[in-house]
Design a protein that fits this description.
Strand order of the largest sheet: 1-2-5-3-4
Strand content: 5-15%
Number of helices: 20
Radius of gyration: 24 Å
Largest sheet: 5 strands, antiparallel
Helix content: 55-70%
Order of helices and strands: HHHHHHHHHHHHHHHHHHEHEEEEH
C-alpha cells in the first residue's frame, strides 16, 4: 500500500515539475501550455509509459472541479471598471453567439458527416464554448486594447454556463421529454438564478472578509477561494448554473478592497495553474492515440466549420443586436472572430455524453480532442501576427504588476508598468507634462537597462520603461491620461473624474 502511494507521489511530482518547466517553453513560442500538458498525459498514458486510464465519469467530475477553480481565478482577477462597458457585449456572445455557433456546426456536421441531428447539435454544443484557461493564458501575454481583452475574457467566463446545460440536455439517453420552449425556460431560469446566487455569495463573502479579522493572513486566500466553490455548490443545489455563479462571485469578491488582496490573487493564480495542469494531463491520459488517426478528417471538417463559419457568424450576428460591437470597429470584430480559442472545456464537455453512454460519444470525444490540438496550435500561434495585421495592438497600454509589497496594500495602491513603444507620442514628453491625477506618480524610469528616479524635467525616450504607483481611486484616471498622451502627445486634453476638461 505504502509502495503504491510512494510511486504515485513520485510520478505526480515529476509530472508537475515537468509541466511547470514547460510553461517557459510555451510562453516563448506564444502557445497555450495546455498543448504541452495534453502531450504529457498522452506520453504517460497507455501508448507511452503504459498507465491505463479510461474512467470518463471520474474525468468529468475532476474536470468540473478544475473548471470551477479556473473560472473563479478569472473572475477574481477581472477588473469591474474594464468589465462593465463590455458586459452586454460579452453576454450577447455567450448566449446568442453560442446559439448561432451550435446551429451552424450542427448543420455542417449533419449534412457533411451524415450524422443524425441530435448528435450533430451535440457536436456544436460541445465546441461552442471558448475556453477560459486558453483565453486567459494567451491574451494576458499580448498587448491589446483593454476593451477587447475584457470582452474575450468575460465571454469565456460566461459561456460555459449555457453550454453545459445544453450538452447535458442533448446527452440525456432518453432525449428531451418536454417541449423546446419548456427547455428554453429552464435554461433562462438556471442562468438568472446562477447570476443571482453569485451576486449574493459574492456580496456576503466581501462583507465577511472585510470584517472577520482572521488571526492569520494565510486564511484569507483560503476563505476567498472557498467562497467561490460555495457559490457553485449553492447554484447546483438550487438547480441553477453553478459556473455562472462562480464567475459572478469571483468578480464581486475580486473587485473589493480586501485585507491581503494580493495574497488572495496569488493563491488563486497558483491553484488555477495546478487545476490546468491536472486537468490537461488527465484528459491526455483519457485519450486513446490508436483511435485519434481516424478522427483527423472529421476534426478538420468540424474545425473549419467552427473557425471559418460558426465563430465569425456568431460575432457578426451578435454585432447587429449589440451597440458595443460597433465601438470595437471592423478590426476588433475580425479579431474577435479569430480569437475564440478552444481548449480543455470542449474536451471536458465531451466526457458528459461519454459517461452517459450516448450513441456516437466515443467518436465525438476523439474528434474534439484532435480538433482542440490542431486548431489551438493554429489559432494561438497566429494571434499576435493577426493583431498586428489588423493594427489593434496596444504596446503602450499600462499593465498591472503583481508584487508582494505590504506598503502598497496598506495604501490601497497598484503598481503599473508602461513602455514607450516606437511611434508613441509619449517620446519627448517631460514627466511634469504627463499631468497625472493626484494619487499617481512615475516612481522609476528604466532606460538602456539602467533604472533611475525621474525628476519633473526628465524627458521620456522611445524604449523607456515606466513604473507608476497609483492609488485605486486614481488608477482609471491615470490609465486614461497615459493613453491620451500616448496617442496625442503633450497637448492631449485632460479630463477629470467628473468629465470636465482640466487642460
Amino acid at each position: 500500500m505504502t509502495g503504491g502511494l510512494d510511486l504515485a507521489l513520485l510520478v505526480g511530482a515529476a509530472v508537475l515539475l515537468v509541466a511547470v518547466g514547460a510553461v517557459r517553453l510555451s510562453t516563448r513560442l506564444g502557445l497555450p501550455s495546455l498543448l504541452v500538458y495534453l502531450l504529457i498525459g498522452v506520453v504517460i498514458g497507455e501508448a507511452g509509459f503504459g498507465i491505463r486510464f479510461d474512467d470518463a465519469e471520474l474525468t468529468r467530475t475532476l474536470g468540473f472541479c478544475a473548471l470551477i477553480m479556473i473560472i473563479a481565478e478569472g473572475g477574481l482577477t477581472a477588473r469591474w471598471s474594464t468589465l462593465r462597458p463590455v458586459l452586454g457585449l460579452s453576454a450577447t456572445l455567450a448566449t446568442l453567439g453560442v446559439a448561432v455557433s451550435i446551429a451552424v456546426v450542427g448543420v455542417v456536421v449533419h449534412f457533411v458527416l451524415d450524422v443524425d441531428w441530435r448528435l450533430a447539435l451535440l457536436y456544436g454544443a460541445v465546441l461552442s464554448s471558448t475556453d477560459a484557461a486558453a483565453v486567459f493564458a494567451t491574451l494576458r501575454v499580448l498587448r491589446l486594447p483593454p476593451r477587447l481583452v475584457a470582452t474575450l475574457e468575460a465571454e469565456s467566463g460566461m459561456n460555459d454556463a449555457p453550454v453545459v446545460l445544453l450538452v447535458v440536455l442533448l446527452s440525456a439517453t432518453a432525449g428531451m421529454t418536454h417541449p423546446w420552449w419548456y427547455e428554453l425556460l429552464i435554461v433562462i431560469y438556471e442562468l438568472a438564478a446562477g447570476a443571482a446566487i453569485g451576486l449574493a455569495v459574492g456580496a456576503a463573502g466581501r462583507w465577511l472578509l472585510r470584517n472577520a479579522a482572521l488571526p492569520s493572513a494565510g486564511l484569507y486566500p483560503i476563505a476567498a477561494v472557498a467562497l467561490t466553490f460555495l457559490a457553485y455548490a449553492a447554484g447546483a443545489v438550487a438547480h441553477a448554473s453553478g459556473f455562472l455563479a462562480v464567475y459572478v462571485a469571483g468578480v464581486v469578491i475580486g473587485n473589493a478592497r480586501l485585507p491581503h488582496r494580493q495574497a488572495i490573487l496569488g493563491f488563486a493564480d497558483a491553484l488555477a495553474w495546478v487545476a490546468q495542469i491536472g486537468l490537461f494531463v488527465l484528459l491526455g491520459l483519457l485519450a486513446s492515440p490508436a483511435r485519434l488517426g481516424e478522427a483527423l478528417v472529421p476534426a478538420l471538417v468540424v474545425g473549419c466549420a467552427l473557425v471559418l463559419l460558426a465563430r465569425p457568424l456568431s460575432v457578426w450576428i451578435s454585432a447587429l443586436v449589440s451597440r458595443s460591437f460597433r465601438e470595437l470597429g471592423r478590426s476588433g470584430r475580425t479579431f474577435l472572430s479569430w480569437a475564440g480559442l478552444r481548449g480543455a472545456v470542449p474536451i471536458v464537455l465531451a466526457t458528459i455524453p461519454l459517461s452517459s453512454a450516448t450513441p456516437g460519444a466515443e467518436t465525438l470525444f476523439d474528434v474534439v480532442f484532435v480538433l482542440v490540438i490542431i486548431f489551438t496550435l493554429v489559432q494561438a500561434g497566429t494571434l499576435a501576427p493577426v493583431a498586428r495585421l489588423l493594427r489593434i495592438t496596444a504596446p503602450t497600454e499600462a499593465i498591472e504588476i503583481q508584487v508582494e509589497t505590504a506598503p502598497l496594500e496598506q495604501m490601497h495602491a497598484d503598481l503599473l508598468q508602461l513602455d514607450v513603444a516606437p511611434g508613441s507620442r509619449l517620446a519627448g514628453v517631460h514627466i511634469d507634462e504627463l499631468r497625472l491625477p493626484v494619487g499617481a506618480v512615475v516612481t522609476l524610469v528604466v532606460r538602456a537597462g539602467a533604472g533611475f528616479v525621474p525628476g519633473p524635467d526628465t524627458r521620456l525616450r522611445t524604449g523607456d520603461g515606466l513604473l507608476i504607483v497609483t492609488t485605486a481611486a486614481a488608477r482609471d484616471l491615470a490609465e486614461r491620461r497615459l493613453r491620451a498622451v500616448s496617442r496625442r502627445g503633450r497637448l492631449a486634453r485632460w479630463f477629470g473624474e467628473d468629465g470636465r476638461d482640466r487642460t
